[in-house]
Amino acid sequence: MYAQLVETGVKRIKDLSEMSEQERAFQEKIDSEIKIEAKNWMPDAYRQTLIRQISQHAHSEIVGMLPEGNWVTRAPSLKRKLQLMAKIQDEAGHGLYLYSAMETLGADRDAEIDKLHSGKAKYSSIFNYPTLNWADMGAVGWLVDGAAIVNQVVLQRTSYGPYSRAMIRICKEESFHQRQGYEILLTMMRHGTQAQKDMVQDAINRLWWPSLMMFGPSDEHSPNSAQSMAWKIKRQSNDELRQRFIDQTIPQLELLGCTCPDPDLKWNAETGHYDFGQIQWDEFYEVLKGNGPCNQERVATRRKAIEDGAWVREAAVAHARKKQNKNAA
Amino acid sequence: MNNKTDLIEYLLRLGDSALIQGQRLCQWCGKAPALEEELALMNVGLDLVGQARNWLDYAAELLDDGRDADDLAFRRDERAYRNLLLVEQPNGDYAVTILKQFLYDAWHLEVLKGLSQSSDERIAGIAAKAVKEVTYHLRRSGEWVERLGDGTEESHKRMLAAIPEVWRFTVELIAADDSEQRLCEAGITPDIATVAAAWQAKVEAIFASATLPVPASPSYFYLNARKGLHTEHLGILLAEMQFLPRAYPDATW
């Protein structure tokens, strides 16, 4: 999940009888699964919620390049280097695509990026954890992109047309990244040395819990979910998605020959799901507040990139203007 | 000396240059001046590392000493590297990065065009595919030289400062050694004088529209990458790039 705890600004969900005619027509469209398009009327809170969610999602793609950038210069073979470069390129593309979807709602890309740099806008908490060995490049692909896919597959049916279409395109590439990430780990586990196997287990130990946190707080502590669900921006609850992720991931973990850093994890034949231990929500909220291991570095790197590049962007604008004037003359 | 030794040497020069330029582009990840540039830098880098793999694969086959392309990339010391001095230079600011890219691209495209006519079919095939990629690289970097050269006062000043930093390394783009001369005579590689003239013309044209002065051609530089005499920057770059295969020599990645 690349968007966590998205504020809707709504205290209580209205029922149809309390709505104005416009609102009712809008909600009926949503209820009958008709996509909302950029030019359609929509409640302001719906618009603002989407801007927050899509921008958070876009910021996550961009900040998510940084933990990978930490290893792209040290990829251990030409094939792995090419794969990682292609993945990073895809992520920059996803960012651009999502910012465009967000701009259809009347938001401004630069203004939203400013909010990221000032700490007002969030991005996925997972990218505030450091990547400490090469296996992290596999584990990020497998677990982080894997968790993102579970969420994004559902978002393909989200009610806002441009966001839904962005998700359909992005999901295809993410699935590819996930398989590639898993293959990195599988190669290390099947053909690697003991030192490499240790790297894989170490990466899983560090990234497992933060990956589960990607789905956001548990349903009882997710105050904005009900409205987002009524608007069909969200289609399934955080806990449902988290459970689905765990259920599909554990067999893959076993196939790797690795263990899960959760002593309470066990198959429950009655429910048909895995039971799992307590997530450290204190840690989640701390990371979200900005106190994670890499929050300061991630935001500082992004801010510096944009500040250092100001003269480049200004030159591009100035040059375009000169050319235009020349053509006009 | 025979053609095979010359050819291996030449393939290493092509492959190493593309790889090191690609590695420098990787260092921009997450730090580019705009999101569109993140995409473009990674895209160009991806093409170059892909080309490097093709050249090094071929070099490894001809070497036939048990090493593959990855061994050549990740287990050779700086004295055995044959990349152009230009591409190993640090990225600097965006003016330096763009200028290095442009000077390399303008040379690279002419070389590849020549190589696509090579009497060696394998080389001609790799080059023909690379020509398409590098045509885009050159268009992009040339447009950026124009934007920055003829953009704002600040960008113009930065381009003026970037030129003397990298220009001296261009001597390697316009001079051949005996080994390349022999390959040229065998119809395997293009005539370096033709490449140099086309490169010079392209640089003059783009610099003119970028309102930048073209310095006199450099005639001599102490170091010579063709002999593995590099600047100090390459060793550090390789230390980073080669870390994992060097630290875990028995590993499979």
Automatic annotation (TrEMBL), chain A:
Pfam families: PaaA_PaaC. One of its GO terms (biological process) is phenylacetate catabolic process. GO terms for molecular function: phenylacetyl-CoA 1,2-epoxidase activity. Its EC number is 1.14.13.149. InterPro entries: Aromatic_CoA_ox/epox (IPR052703), Ferritin-like (IPR012347), Ferritin-like_SF (IPR009078), PaaA (IPR011881), PaaA_PaaC (IPR007814). One of its GO terms (cellular component) is cytosol. It comes from the Bacteria. Keywords: Oxidoreductase. NCBIfam families: PA_CoA_Oxy1. This is 1,2-phenylacetyl-CoA epoxidase, subunit A. It comes from Pseudomonas fluorescens. The gene is paaA.
From TrEMBL, chain B:
It comes from the Bacteria. Pfam families: PaaA_PaaC (PF05138). One of its GO terms (biological process) is phenylacetate catabolic process. One of its GO terms (cellular component) is cytosol. NCBIfam families: PA_CoA_Oxy3 (TIGR02158). This is 1,2-phenylacetyl-CoA epoxidase, subunit C. It comes from Pseudomonas fluorescens.
